[in-house]
Here is the input.
Amino acid sequence: MKLPGSVDQVWGKDYKFCPECGSDSAIRYLSEAVRRQVCDVNNGGCGFIRWNSPIPVVAGLVPFPAEYIGKGDGFDLEGANLELERFVDPVRTGVLLVRRAVEPFVGSWVLPGGHIEPGETPSSSCIRELFEETGVIGHFETSLNPCCPLPGKLNQVAMHMMVRPSGGTIKAGDDVSDARIFGINDIPEIPFTSHTKTLADYFDGLCGIIKGVRHY
Here is the structure.
């Protein structure tokens, strides 16, 4: 069995030169099993190790009552009935998606989210990204499974959470060209497997919730 990070998986782009000393001849892998580069001191290198740890990213599943499915740019949440009890049933709810305006996968629909800034918690980062990308004000509800590694060029660990909308006006913002509420029968193709799994689990009513068994 291959371990995560083994040579049959690509975790980001390999260095051709050591970023510390500039050597192009001392770069090697620590072992055949671990794709971690080192500037070999035994070959004239400086000893630099590229740990290549995955980058944590967040994404928010933001549910809405069914009557708001199809709403998008310009939809003012002021006065909307957004009580959580009204849309805990996935069959009768919609979710907010954004259309990417940047690579990778420009033009594709995904859950709102992004990178964690220094000093942020995952939940505060998710709420900030939600507002920056969609104009929606949200409150952290609960963490969702999965929190999974994403092998490939992105080299990321995705942390997903449910965020309850509480205000604002939907408007495409940073890094997105559109934001819209979709129902279960309208979900477009999504390029990120972790996002599709979270949505599938949610709409199937099988979404595992950290700290207790709770289904939506």
